[in-house]
Amino acid sequence: MPRGRPKTVIAPCQHCNKQFKRAEHLKRHERTHTNEKPFLCNCGQRFTRQLSHPSGPCISPPPAELVRTSMIQDVDMGRSDIICDLDLNWDPIYMSQDILPATLFDTYFPFVDTQPTTLPPQTSNFSRFSSRLPPLDDIENDAEDDAEDEDLAEGTTSANAVPWSVTVAAYERLNFEVQNYSEALPGGCSLPSRSTLTRLLEKYLVCVHEYLPFIHPATFSVEQRDVELSLAMAALGSLYRFEHPKSYELYFMAKIMLLEKIRRENLQFMSNFLSGQSHSILDERNDLGKIQTFILLIEFASWADKKILPDALSMSSQLAMLVRQNGISDSDEMPQYVDWFSWVAVEERRRTLLAAYVLFNLHSIAFDIPPLILNHEVGVFLPGYSEQWKAMNITQWRHAPRQVERQFQQGLRSLFDGTGIPRDASVSSFSNYLLIHGLLQQIYIDRHGCAGSLQPDTIKSFERALRTWQLSWEITYESTLDPLSPKGPFGLSSAALLRLAYIRLNSNLDPYRGLLSRDLGSITNRSSNLSRSPHVDRAILHAAHALSIPVRVGIMVMSSTKTSIWSIEHSLCSLECALLLNDWLEMMSTSVRACGPEGLRKVERRLLGIITGIIKETCLAKTLDVLEDDSSRFHRMATMVLKLWTQIFKGSNVLEIDNIIGAGLQLLVDTNLD
């Protein structure tokens, strides 16, 4: 009787007819054609191969997994007790009263866009070793696996390499470049070790980059890019690993090297100009690298320690000039027939220019300053689908769906005229994120151009545009609210901006210029100028819904694990929601004290019921049982809402501005209690 496994004939690959000895090798090979990634890691990424080693017992799951587990459990359980209670308050009749689409406030919030899968338990390699000799098949299998790995690498772009890898040659070049700027760098600055730099670049490209993807991962190479760009990426990666001293050191190194490089180039230009020598315009790729480095440095400085915040504003003016010089106002329509590398060049440039536009908008939202790039200046087309952008080789790129080309201006006009984005020409989640930014900027410009107030017809026009945006977002190919989805985290970020747009449109809160100087007093020393109107009701509804989401997930869970799903958009939106709810509840308290509960409008009573229902699902529920008059009750509810938001901002925050917001809200709570 023959030993070993019976020989079976394996059908060839259906795509390229390549022959394999084992079925599992064939499956793995075919996934290089189909881009299928069936195995889900607890970090949210999907892979073509399953881990062969066992996972040890996890005493404390990683933050991202904690949040994801909580979300999946909510979806699996359907309408849990907390959702059922909230559903009593989210009255569909009330929602149909031309306030907002009911779908937006469905408390069955679809955090995940895929059903959870249960993977079979994996066999431990360690458990196969015993006092007996291992079977020869194990050695044969391992040898075939090694051979197959080599086969799979053929025909792909660096199948085994990763974008964040730093080769010995690349590291030597980095060291050499840093030495060229040693006179400009402060003492004590040094390049991190090669392994540390690799780890920090990985953190940026895998996590941080997802929130504003403009550096193409598959074609990124440390050896071929500017040193200051790699250092800026590493600075953000270090920040998100909570290695703050190293992150600031890398930030200063990248900033000094970039500005010194620009200074030297300007000196060379002036020298050539004065001597009458012909001078060439700096190539576009060089300028693109400068723009990308500026974006990362400004992104770092904008939400960090207040001592470096002036850096963000001073570099922003330089970035705006570069963005204009590099053609953000020009059309860059993608040719119909284009190869992968040409597509990458156009798409990366497009995303880089639009990332600068986003950054200027976020400054306008946070610091109440005019955006440096206005909507009418943006002439480039909207960015493509995430799947095409993340393709690691030509084959994956060819199989990925391609977005219909649409200019930013065209997309923005379609929201205001009510036509929206057609279902058969839906845009990417990044594109929808950019369009809601465009609406927010227009609200800012119109409000500041009308002495701080908007005409009723203008408000109606914006509300139609916001509804059209929501409908367009719902039909898009990449529509998802799962922050860990391969389609990107733009769904949650866009939802935060949508709430912020309704709040900015329908209420007129004092601007928080103090955030620019990190002044806590700017949050507490405000004068509320709210009025009782249907417009304010809409804003309150959005603010209440924003609070209901972390309440459903769990305040303590959000406080300790929000890092993996939290972005600056959530921080800014949460601050305004907290302050708006506080001001409105105080206004309700004053009104009831003066006119009694009979003076409340029906909509206001419904809103108070919604907020009460949300508080009942938290640890502050018992405080609602205190016997007191309605005016005192509403005053205390205002403080409770602030306490809940304050708790969310506690814990470990990546961004320093989150600590400032949390401290400011806590100060406001203490003030209300006095």
Automatic annotation (TrEMBL):
Alphabetical list of PROSITE patterns matching this protein: ZINC_FINGER_C2H2_1 (PS00028), ZINC_FINGER_C2H2_2 (PS50157)
Domain C2H2-type: 11-38
Region called Disordered, residue ranges: 119-156
Single annotated GO MF: RNA polymerase II cis-regulatory region sequence-specific DNA binding
Localization per Swiss-Prot or TrEMBL: Nucleus
GO cellular component: chromatin; nucleus
InterPro entries found in the cross-reference section: VerF-like, XnlR_reg_dom, Znf_C2H2_sf, Znf_C2H2_type
Main location: nucleus
Gene3D superfamilies with a match to the protein in the record: Classic Zinc Finger (3.30.160.60)
Entry keyword Zinc-finger: yes
Superkingdom: Eukaryota
Gene Ontology biological-process entries: DNA-templated transcription
Ranges of compositional bias, category Polar residues: 119-130
Biased composition (Acidic residues): 137-153
Pfam families xrefs: Fungal_trans (PF04082)
Alphabetical UniProt keywords: Metal-binding, Nucleus, Repeat, Zinc, Zinc-finger
Protein name, as recorded: C2H2-type domain-containing protein
Organism whose genome encodes this protein: Scytalidium lignicola (Hyphomycete)
